[in-house]
Amino acid sequence: MDWWILELLTTVVLVGIAAWLGPFIRRFGRSYAADVFRANPRTGKSFIVLADIAYYLIFTAYVLFTVRFEPGQGWGELVGPRQLQYETARLGGILLIIGLLHSANLLVLPVIGRLFTLNRRLDEDTPGQGDEAERTS
Predict the structure, then answer these.
(1) Quick check: pTM over 0.85?
(2) 78 φ, ψ (degrees, to nearest 5)
């Protein structure tokens, strides 16, 4: 098989992984975000939208950074072990990046949710805050 065919197949697989994982993560992330941002559900919905945008930006950047338009050094015109190793590393790399970012998100999101909840309580407890809201009504 020519080197560019494997390159193209790997790129299609990477895009397929993005198309499959994005909605999958979003579906299960909604309930998690709802639990974390239960004091302010609109913030949770906004977070999910922003996380989706970041997910697709990271995925697109990774594919564009790793795609090759000519054979790598030592590859030759046909697929060999060096190209197989490179393409396998591309697949593993994106899974590792998404896994690490997802794990960091799971760890940091409760802290962010707690800070937003505390911030909201401080706003509600601030003297005169309620008076101003009543005047504008």
Answers:
(1) no
(2) -110, 155
What tokens does 135 get?
């005047």
Q: Distance between CA atoms of 8 and 111, rounded to whole angstroms?
A: 41
**Which one-letter DSSP state was computed for residue 75?**
T
- In DSSP terms, 78 is beta-bridged to 2
Alpha-carbon gap, residue 41 to 134, rounded angstroms: 23
Q: What is the pLDDT of residues 49-93, one digit of tens each?
A: 888 899 999 999 999 999 999 998 888 889 999 999 999 999 999
CA nearest 22: which of 45, 46, 54, 44? Answer: 54
Q: How far is residue 2's CA from residue 13's CA, in Å, rounded to a whole number?
A: 17
Under 8 Å between Cβ of 35 and 43? no
Phi, psi at 2, each rounded to 5°: -65, 150
Residue (of 88, 72, 93, 94) closest to 18 by Cα position:
94
